[in-house]
Amino acid sequence: MSRFQGPHHEATLNLLLASAHLRTVMEQTFAEVDLTPGQYNVLRILNGAHPQGYARCEISRRMIERAPDLTRMIDRLIDRGFAERRKCDEDARRSMTFITPHGRQLLAKLAPEIESETRSLQGVITAAEARELSRICEKIYAATLAPTVADEDA
After folding, report:
1. CATH number of 22-123
2. Residue extents of the structural domains in the chain
3. Residue 148 pLDDT > 50
4. Distance (Å, rounded) from C-alpha 153 to C-alpha 85?
5. First and final CA of the chain: distance in angstroms?
6. For the chain, which end, N or C, has fewer CB atoms within 10 Å of the first or last residue's CB respectively?
7. CA-CA distances (angstroms) from residue 144 to 24, 26, 68, 91?
């Protein structure tokens, strides 16, 4: 009898294991600068919008993993000088969050380590396999998430 209930069950478990492994490696890198994966994701999102910012709802929509404490997460980034919040010019009831130069410096400091971890996959899978893995992953989340989220860049 197989350990798995079928190939889809095996694939699901393998995806979860691979994800947990990659997350652990990344968490170790972020821990060196006292950052969580979620905080790093927020900084990357804000950096992608730079010099514009995003409202909290837009940051939430773009997150890799949903963060129920996103406001507190942003507050911690602001407290550390990595982000700043300003009132929206068009609607004073809304605020926008921007990455600061200090936040951009932190991402630049982390970039070589993140790049090294990404390059380490080159020794494990080929470029063609990486493209195929991306295609399959995109197919999975496009089928299970809201269409607006599936079309977003992470």
Report:
1. 1.10.10.10
2. 22-123
3. no
4. 23
5. 39
6. N
7. 25, 25, 20, 34
CA distance linking residue 153 with residue 75, whole number of Å: 24
Q: Which residue has the tokens 């493209």?
A: 131
126's tokens: 């080929």
Residues 3, 116: Cα–Cα separation, whole Å: 34
Contacts of 104 (CB under 8 A, 6+ apart): 47, 50
- C-alpha 86/C-alpha 55 separation (Å) is 10
Cα–Cα distance, 35 to 40 (Å, whole number): 7
pLDDT in tens, 12-56: 999 999 999 999 999 999 999 999 999 999 999 999 999 999 999
